[in-house]
Design goal:
The structure is a single chain. This protein has about 325 residues and is of the alpha/beta class. The chain has a domain of about 230 residues: Rossmann fold (3-Layer(aba) Sandwich), CATH 3.40.50.720. Helices cover about 40% and strands about 15% of the residues. It is built from 11 helices and 14 strands.
């Protein structure tokens, strides 16, 4: 049985579908602070099965112990965490408490119940401002904001845990830029408040929830002057977690793996691809660069194929088509308003 913390969220909900398709039994644990019970209902509709769900906080040991007392948990996929860069700068203590302290409590409970396999949802933010691209797993690690530092600190904590007890099996998955949605259009990205990622801004502009898209900077050293990122379909990302679980028993040491496509797309590339997918014009305005933004950031994904047998399958057109299907069918996300 797999415990999926944060399983009601964007990446978590898609991963639960992939787990089901791969034959894994799982239980979801989520405090719903940045997700929705409606997403769980829709995942159940897609897979045709009731999912054991526990509403609780990873900082609360008793909440977690209740799950471990009820189910024989043998591995954990750990998504639960706050993820807004701007908010992390404004509320660093909240981020350290939730992300770092929450992971400490989770690992303590796992140890208590002799569950020593964890796949951790890390991020390409642990590379800070990389000097070259594509980014490989052995690049120097740093962080430019409290959110990124929480991911970096958790990676270090998990490495120390392995050094202390090498029965632990630990895989750190460093995501690049998740986009897209499930083919059904039933689940997708539904950010609370102001989105943190490009795609919801584009899709919300397409359904006229936003008047126009702000593009921050058009004078970068890229093919069209706008920032280049490695956008990866969320279903490909979900499959990466399934591959991690399939391979976790045979890994030695702590495994760090990039999950990206290896392709860099600019902001304008994404706008044009979304216009094609939606048959809608996306009005945009050029705004000044944002502090801390880099010109290019994309992965070298070859190690993921070498150690996990995983590679991204879906391209930019499918990412945009699936995002548009979700957004057009659910203009207000999971809200029924």
């Amino acid at each position: 049985m797999v415990l999926v913390t944060g399983g009601a969220g964007y990446i978590g909900s898609h991963t639960c579908i992939s787990l089901h398709e791969a034959g894994f039994d799982f239980v979801i644990f989520d405090n719903l602070c940045n997700s929705s019970q409606e997403s769980l209902a829709r995942v159940e509709k897609i897979i045709g099965k009731k999912i054991p769900f526990y509403r609780g906080d990873i900082r609360n040991k008793q909440d977690l112990q209740n799950v471990f007392d009820t189910h024989k948990i043998d591995s954990v996929i750990h998504f639960a965490g706050l993820k807004a860069v701007g908010e992390s700068v404004e509320q660093p203590l909240h981020y350290y408490d939730n992300n770092v302290n929450g992971t400490l409590v989770l690992c303590q409970v796992m140890q208590e119940y002799n569950c020593k396999k964890i796949v951790f949802s890390s991020s390409a933010t642990v590379y800070g401002d990389p000097h070259t691209t594509p980014i490989k797993e052995d690049f120097p690690l740093s962080a430019t904001n409290p959110y990124g530092r929480t991911k970096l600190f958790i990676e270090e904590i998990l490495r120390d845990l392995y050094i202390c007890d090498n029965e632990w099996k630990i895989i750190l998955l460093r995501y690049f830029n998740p986009v897209g949605a499930h083919k059904s259009g039933l689940i997708g990205e539904d950010p609370n408040g102001i989105p943190n990622n490009l795609m919801p801004f584009i899709s919300q502009t397409a359904v006229q929830k936003r008047e126009f898209l702000n593009i921050f900077g058009d004078d970068y050293d890229t093919h069209d002057g706008t920032g280049v990122r490695d956008y990866i379909h969320v279903v490909d990302l979900a499959q990466g977690h399934v591959k991690a679980l399939h391979n976790i028993d045979k890994i030695q040491n702590v495994l760090s793996v990039n999950l990206g496509t290896g392709n860099g797309y600019s902001v304008l590339d994404m706008v044009r691809a979304f216009e094609k997918a939606s048959n809608k014009k996306i009005p945009y305005k050029i705004a000044p660069r944002r502090t801390g933004d880099v010109a290019k950031c994309f992965a070298d994904p070859s190690y993921a194929f070498e150690v996990l047998g995983w590679r991204a399958e879906k391209g930019i057109d499918e990412m945009c088509e699936d995002s548009w299907r979700w957004q057009s069918q659910n203009p207000n996300g999971y809200s029924r308003d």
